[in-house]
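Module 6 notes. Inverse folding takes a fixed backbone as the condition and produces residue identities as the prediction. Think of it as a translation problem where the source language is geometry and the target language is the twenty amino acids. Below is one complete input and output pair. Work through it position by position during the lab.
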């Protein structure tokens, strides 16, 4: 079966009028920004870094991709606590420590590349697990009101 037929047969069974609404909703729900966060044994920083993303002034669609470099201190368990806050916006990727790569810079580079390949946003932001953004408004300044349509709370 060619790709076109596959796409048509996998769409939900909608009437002709509803098909355009369905396709429009797929486009609207695509994230504008992908936050790529990497951790390695940084359990104590998970709360600060993920709360920081939650508290950014942003109203566009976004996603958070967490990459863990084989932590054994409970980092992943801390990240999992945020599933209910981020809902479907949070995706977690684990990298094994027994892959033969010993250079830490290369390890985190490989992890970031994987997150970037998995991301769906038009733009991406990287964040090390022990970092946070200092300015809650920086996305508005960086992308402008035109893209983010931020509404004051």
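Target side of the pair, the amino acids:
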């Amino acid at each position: 079966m060619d790709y076109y037929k596959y796409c048509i047969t996998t769409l939900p069974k909608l009437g002709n009028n509803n098909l355009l609404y369905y396709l429009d909703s797929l486009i609207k729900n695509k994230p504008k920004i992908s936050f790529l966060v990497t951790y390695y044994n940084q359990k104590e920083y998970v709360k600060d870094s993920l709360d920081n993303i939650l508290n950014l002034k942003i109203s566009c669609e976004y996603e958070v991709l967490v990459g863990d470099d084989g932590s054994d201190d409970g980092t992943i368990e801390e990240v999992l606590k945020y599933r209910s806050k981020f809902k479907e916006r949070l995706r977690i990727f684990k990298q094994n420590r027994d892959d033969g790569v010993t250079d830490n810079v290369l390890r985190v580079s490989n992890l970031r590349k994987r997150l970037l390949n998995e991301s769906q946003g038009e733009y991406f932001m990287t964040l090390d697990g022990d970092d946070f953004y200092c300015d809650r408004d920086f996305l508005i300044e960086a992308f402008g009101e035109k893209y983010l349509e931020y509404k004051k709370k």
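Reference fact for the lab report: The beta strands are 33-39, 62-68, 90-94, 123-128.
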